[in-house]
């Protein structure tokens, strides 16, 4: 993917688009992105100047931007912070997208979408509507947030350096393609398999990745297992497996801040990342934590429950 100005323009406008951006708009954005060498230049560009882009033959490069496309471009232009780097602007738009998705998800949660298991609820001794709603709300919301967080982390990694690319586009990798590749012209390529935490791999997976790392290194590259948070001295089963099955495991694993600082080529990137995410989340959530928004939603759902059901038993019976 790479944290380039062109990719930022395309990604930012696609995120700002109301609905799903189609291939035609993405094509226009790719053409537009090639015209700029600075963030300031794109931020200050007018819609008229974008529509006036010509080919070398003097023909229009694309059909006139639609009103929705214009709105998306203007919205992203407003989001651009000229005091921040391209990478920091990526952090901003990706984090804001994540937070907004969680807000949207909260608005769609309902008792019907819980898909509650009456057997489980009985086994957990949930005796009141309040207990039932709170437990199931946190379960449903938690699952959604964890899934979305995976995509956020993936994007934060892909856009943390202008030389990072999706490993699936490379031939290297025998049975598994690596997640990320750092590929700087004229330098040794680094292949990384990314895992969320220290408990995400079993013995079979660890052995497999050790074999894949061996293959890319025999070809003259470097291979690593990257773990997005934690420390190497964490006492976990996976840490023990890495020590057992990965030769020189400490040199072949990048854990927590090691990973983020390595891929960004910035020894303070982990600090920049957290501070940037915190700032964007605080602004987007208007100084309110997501927990408070969840609790507000739970209070709303409890009222809905009491409106529609006389008791928890009545609700459980409706599930059969």
UniProtKB/TrEMBL annotation:
SUPFAM superfamilies in UniProt: Restriction endonuclease-like
Coiled coil (UniProt feature): none
UniProt domain Type II restriction endonuclease EcoO109IR: residue ranges: 87-281
Pfam families to which the protein is assigned, alphabetical: RE_EcoO109I
Domain of life: Bacteria
Listed InterPro entries: RE_EcoO109IR, Restrct_endonuc-II-like
Record-given protein name: Type II restriction endonuclease EcoO109IR domain-containing protein
């Amino acid at each position: 993917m790479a944290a380039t100005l062109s990719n930022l323009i395309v990604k930012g406008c696609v995120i700002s688009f109301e609905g799903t951006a189609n291939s035609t708009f993405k094509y226009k954005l790719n053409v537009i992105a090639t015209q700029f060498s600075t963030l300031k230049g794109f931020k200050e560009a007018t819609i008229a100047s974008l529509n006036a882009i010509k080919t070398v033959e003097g023909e229009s490069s694309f059909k006139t931007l639609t009103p929705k496309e214009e709105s998306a471009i203007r919205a992203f232009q407003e989001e651009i912070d000229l005091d921040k780097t391209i990478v920091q602007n990526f952090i901003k738009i990706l984090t804001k997208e994540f937070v907004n998705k969680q807000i949207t998800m909260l608005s769609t949660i309902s008792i019907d979408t819980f898909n509650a298991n009456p057997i489980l609820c009985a086994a957990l001794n949930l005796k009141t509507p309040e207990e039932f709603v709170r437990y199931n709300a946190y379960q449903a919301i938690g699952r959604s947030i964890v899934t979305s967080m995976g995509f956020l982390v993936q994007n934060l990694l892909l856009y943390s350096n202008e030389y990072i690319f999706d490993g699936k586009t490379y031939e290297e990798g025998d049975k598994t393609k690596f997640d990320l590749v750092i590929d700087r012209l004229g330098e040794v390529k680094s292949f990384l398999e990314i895992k969320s935490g220290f408990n995400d791999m079993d013995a079979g997976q660890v052995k497999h990745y050790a074999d894949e790392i061996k293959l890319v290194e025999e070809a003259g590259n470097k291979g690593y297992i990257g773990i997005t948070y934690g420390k190497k001295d964490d006492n976990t089963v996976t840490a023990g497996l890495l020590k057992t099955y990965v030769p020189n495991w400490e040199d072949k694993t990048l854990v927590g801040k090691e990973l983020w600082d390595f891929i960004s080529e910035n020894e303070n990137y982990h600090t920049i990342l957290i501070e940037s995410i915190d700032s964007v989340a605080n602004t987007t959530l208007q100084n309110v934590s997501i927990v408070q928004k969840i609790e507000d939603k739970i209070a709303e759902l409890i009222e809905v429950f009491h409106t529609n059901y006389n008791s928890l038993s009545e609700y459980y019976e409706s599930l059969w």
